[in-house]
Amino acid sequence: MQVAKSPMQVDDEEEEEVICRYCFCGEEDGELVSPCACIGSQKYAHLSCLRQWQKMVLVSHPTDPALQKKDSRHHVCNVCNSPYTCAPPTRHDLMVSCVGEQVAELISKESIICAQNTYLNGLTQNMERQLTQQFPSMPSEMVSREVRHSLRRFEGMYFITSVEEDNGMHELPITDQAILNRLRERLDDTLSLQVEGKELKVVAAGSLAGIPEEELRGKLAALQAPVNLTFAAKEAPTSGDDRVVAVNLIHRTQPFSQPQVDQAMNKACEKYYGARRVKVTHYHGGPVDAHKISMCLVPGGEGKGWTLEKDLSKAIELAHSRAVRRCATQGKIAGGQTVRLTGLQGAAHLNGKLGLAMQFNEGSERWLVRLGNGETKQVKVANLEPREGAGGRVYVFWGAACWSRTQLLGEIAKGQWGVCHASVQETFALPEGKRKQGLDGRLTFAPVTEMTEDFMRDPSRQTIPTDENAQLLICTESDLSNHQP
Predict the structure, then answer these.
(1) Residue pLDDT, tens place only, 328-353
(2) 234-245 burial, b if ≥16 CB within 10 A, otherwise e?
């Protein structure tokens, strides 16, 4: 990368105008560099202006990796076609710069993600308009029903259960021979293929474990389904590739497998007969592996007010052990139960507030109660009104929603989602229909940047969103199980 000559160093015969090719200003606005092979008036640019150009190229891409196309403009000059000598910002770096460090740090385990009402309203209008245009004879009530169904995952309130580091290895179980045949046809001479902009290569693992590399092609050609193939990413993953997994807290459902639930309950009751009193509530966690239990949430105990447990039987045991009555002085309150504060004199402003009974202190004869704002209070039994959860509770989530960290930051940057730390208020203290209300004033949103969608810049405007989400929902709802929200 060359630094611009000063005006005194430029030969008269060159008659080269030393200005930035983007903003047309000179060195008085910053150092000028020559980032590529361009000459003449295109030779120089402020590094900040070049960065802005590179940023705008990435901003124009969809946030969903499945919809992104390879675009070289952010690292290759579109005039001289030579690579820029200064490395462009990564998509992850761009998204962090748009949302801010504070918001980026909130993408962590046990945080809440929730869509903005303004975004939902605008997306609803756009989808209704598109459906009406595509199917003019469709009754309005059917249009509304289709829109509500399609928007279900956007209307959710997602609890992040894990942020998993991407190790670059991807396992792919294949049970259908036709799918295996199509996959083999897609592989190039190096047994690689492009998936969501990344190059993945078949390696000696899974059904090909222990096979020398020079024999992989022949062994792969001979495989019959079912098989398990393993792909390795060509480029080392970064923190932007981390897998964010979350479950929806507000959409109840029936268990996908009642025998699985019965088996877990029976197993817990073999250890604790009273475990049958535990109330098990089922939720549609998300479209990924919707037929499997992704996580269980058990209220009470130490810490923030809950415990995450993947094994349903163990979750039921834990809920029972927290709810069991251990002494008469604890009253009719059980560990993990929702309580309402009442009759307080010194802290009357807390009367009527809901909280979660965490642990009982026999010495002080007080319950440790965690409130919706995260604070804990030592409260006498007489000042607590028991609510839901006397016998113990377990929330079971079937399926999950998944993003890469970069994808989720991109959606937040566009104004679609807000994020905050979770509390007992929206997890256990409030019923499903009121949990989103508990987030009022707590969600943090990205500042307005070039990433922000137009209709999100001013909530008072009636602009209808035209981003890819509305069309994507209409076109791919039938394939929801394979699409990340």
Answers:
(1) 999 999 999 999 999 999 899 999 99
(2) eeebeebbbebb
